[in-house]
Amino acid sequence: MKFIIGILIALVFGLVALAILLLLDRRADRAEWNRLAALQPKAPEHFAPEMVADLPEPAQRYFTYTIQPGTPLLPVAIIEMTGQFSLGTKEDPRYQSMEARQILAAPEGFVWSMRTRGGMPVSGSDSGSWTRFRIFGLIPVGRLGGNPDHTRSAFGRYVAEATIWAPAAMMPGPGVEWSAVDANSARVTITHGNLEQTVDVAVDSEGRPVEVSFQRWSNANPDKVHRLQPFGAVMSDFRDVEGYRLPFRIEAGNMFGTDDYFPFFLADVTEIRFPGADG
Fold first, then answer.
1. Does residue 198 fall inside a structural domain?
2. Using CB atoms within 10 A of its CB, is residue 250 exposed (0-12), middle (13-18) or buried (19+)?
3. Position 138 pLDDT exceeds 50
4. DSSP letter string, 47-70
5. pLDDT by residue (tens digit) across 181-227?
6. In a domain, 131, yes or no
7. For the whole model, what pTM was predicted?
8. Strand 95-105, strand 209-218: pairing
9. In this structure, is the dihedral angle defined by the CA atoms of residues 43, 44, 48 and 52, taken in order, positive or negative?
10. 186 near 180, Cβ under 8 Å?
11. Whole domain around residue 186: which residue ranges?
12. Chain CA centroid to CA 210, Å
């Protein structure tokens, strides 16, 4: 009897500890979200094509398509999405329906909070400082971060996503440099502290950014070793949002442009908005 009571007490303490950990994680999510939202400029400049006239022609095309003249330059974006997220491999993708909410504030950071719908109940968040996921809303199945490899990998992700959903963050200036690649693509290099990430943006004849690709620092490989490897995304279904033209369909994955490409992230955006300092 004492043995059973001991097990029950240990179980209760374990559940309490997990609940406290969940509470602390959610508090950290909110704090980082609020910090990033507060980075939105209160008196932003307004876009004019002359601002990008010295850039390579594909970069000019990118900006003049994605940002309409007179639009406030708001680098912080919030994206709501549904779609599918793979919990497996290319051979056995095990796609799960998901819904997620994200704030992008390149080059400062991001928070992506998601949960699956149906199947295995997985939820959690990604940021520049952590990756934390749980099953059944409570049991941790992955806690990463707090090291240079994670920081570098996350930086690549949210810089690339800013080229997709937050073009104002890519405007030329300190820490942002554009160069030509070919007639229909340009390269942006973002520098922030000791972090640097280069992303290639391919545009169509009108300037839609239809592909982004870059070398991402990642251990998503059979050796589970961090190294540079191709990553990229394909975008479609462009819509007007508060003076911006942005894609509402995104497919992204590792080994982009190779036979091993695996789109583990399939997103259908439901809303994009640009918060004020209190958003």
1. yes
2. buried
3. yes
4. --GGGGTTS-HHHHHHHHHHB-TT
5. 999 999 999 999 999 999 999 999 999 999 999 999 999 888 999 99
6. no
7. 0.91
8. unpaired
9. positive
10. yes
11. 42-110+148-273
12. 17
Q: What pLDDT shows up at residue 19?
A: 79
Per-residue pLDDT of 21-75, as tens digits, reads 778 888 999 999 999 999 999 999 999 999 999 999 999 999 999 999 999 999 9
Minimal CA–CA distance to 110: which of 33, 171, 55? 33
14 within a domain of the structure (yes/no)? no
Question: Is the residue at 5 inside a domain?
Answer: no
SS (H, E, C) 92-147: CCCEEEEEEEEEEECCCEEEEEEEEECCCCEEEEEECCEEEEEECCCEEEEEEECC
Q: How far apart are CA 155 and CA 117, in angstroms?
A: 28
- Sort residue 233 into left (φ over 0), alpha (ψ -120 to 50) or beta: beta
Which strand (E) or helix (H) includes residue 203?
strand 195-203
Reading the block at residue 250, the tokens are: 């995104």
Distance (Å, rounded) from C-alpha 107 to C-alpha 120? 33
* Domain count along the chain: 1
